[in-house]
Amino acid sequence: QVQFVESGGGLVQPGGSLRLSCAASGFTTSSFAMTWYRQAPGKERELVAGISQAGGSTSYARSVKGRFTISRDNAKNTLYLQMNSLKPEDTAVYYCNRIPLATDWGQGTQVTVSL
């Protein structure tokens, strides 16, 4: 059974940093590109960042480029998202998934950027 367990969210002031983690299981993670999504209240889920199977290629949404860094450790079946220079508009629940998307999503981790 494919499972994603996200962690590392919290409350942070604007300009602060957080590092999210995603523990993936139930499939061979090194065989799949991986992604981070987020969903803000009242908005649709949006793609934030993606990374290739071996980690050599990454891509980012324009809104986070230069501030967020996606990485992975295939030996630990874990995906990361380093978020710097956080803004209030980054407030959302963050989810990880693979490409192609698995039908079951994790519970996500809440990130709140506020004074």
Describe the structure.
By secondary structure, this protein is mainly beta. The protein is built from no helices and ten strands. The strands form two sheets. A six-stranded mixed β-sheet has the order 2-10-9-4-5-6, with no helix packed on it. A four-stranded antiparallel β-sheet has the order 1-3-8-7, with no helix packed on it. Strand 7 and strand 8 (78-83) form a beta hairpin. The mean pLDDT is 97.
Short recap of the structure:
The protein is mainly β. Helix content is 0%, strand content 50%.
Strand order, sheet with most strands: 2-10-9-4-5-6
Query: Based on CA inertia axes, which overall geometry fits?
Result: globular
Assembly of the depicted chains? single chain
Number of helices: 0
Distance from N terminus to C terminus (CA atoms, Å) equals 40 Å
Pick out its properties.
single chain, 115 residues, mainly beta
Write the layout of secondary structure elements.
Layout: E1 3-7, E2 10-12, E3 18-25, E4 33-39, E5 46-51, E6 58-60, E7 68-73, E8 78-83, E9 92-99, E10 109-113
Parallel strand pairs: 2-10
Antiparallel strand pairs: 1-3, 3-8, 4-5, 4-9, 5-6, 7-8, 9-10
